[in-house]
Amino acid sequence: MYNRSLDIFKAVAETGSFSKAAEKLFLTHTAVIKQVNHLEEHFHTKLLVRSPQGIRLTQAGEYLYRETLRVMEHSRKVAAEIQKDEYKEKRILRLGTSALYPCHHFMHLWSRLREKNLRFQLEIIAFEDDDHRFANLNKRYDFIIGAYDGAIGAGYQFVPLGAYRFCLAMNSSHPLANRKKLTFRNLDGQRLMIMQTGTSPVNDSIRAELVKQYPGVSLIDIPPIYNIRTFNRCAKSNALLLSLECWNHVHPGLTAIPLEEAYTLPYGIITGNGAGTDMEEFIEIIRQAMKKDAGK
Asked: DSSP strand E in 148-214: where?
């Protein structure tokens, strides 16, 4: 390992004086002499010749001075190399994913962050779309990517990344399944599965518009938390389901048609409060990246 006494020896060799070296290094005159003596004892040879005219290096001292410069430069390069991200310990963050909480929208942002040597690695954890998906945050996985409209409660935090557009899912044999787009006007006489009121302000706004402007649409209340049963129910019926674009491929028997009305639902990172230092640092990096994108 690099001996810090070499710093003192180098200063003495370059100044030709114990006093000047002590002043340069903010040490006492005695401390400088002691360290040089320690080096000479260590190598069992004289490194300096002291005389009334000053200090000069012996042949051994000249050699040690040259090698000291080389060793110091090598130490600097080693320290710089060790500090590179590739040698730093990677911190693992567990990203939960499921049919209704897909992570592919997030992976575009993640790819960009990785190009900047972000010191995090992702471990993908699959989970079931059941009532425990939020309860397992900070336990089985650190975060998930999903839609958020105030429905997950105060025990969680949300970092927006974008917005999902709404669409209408239906059995692939439904008469409207061949349309490229649909509007609320196309729903006259149709049955529409929509989550019950009081959970999602956006869904409530859609319901309110339909009730007021399109009374010919029959609304079917469904539980506020979608799961695979929701899509199975739609596939078995002749009803339409108010859905999101991220769920277009959840059920192979359903066709999803984009809704022209400009309703969207924010999506982003969902994690529990008190997620830990690594997750908080990661969230801050994400926020800064999103802020930078917004400023472009």
From this structure: 156-171, 191-195
pLDDT band at 264 (very low <50, low <70, confident <90, very high): very high
HSE-up (13 A, CA, CB side) for residue 115:
7
pLDDT at residue 295 tops 90? no
Dump pLDDT digits (tens) for 73-117: 888 887 777 666 555 567 889 999 999 999 988 988 888 887 666
For residues 182 and 257, the answer to whether their CB atoms sit within 8 Å is yes
- Give dist(CA 164, CA 267) in Å, integer: 7
* pLDDT of amino acid 26: 85
Name all domains of the chain by residue range, CATH numbers in brackets: 5-83 (1.10.10.10), 91-270 (3.40.190.290)
Cα torsion angle, 285, 290, 294, 296, sign: positive
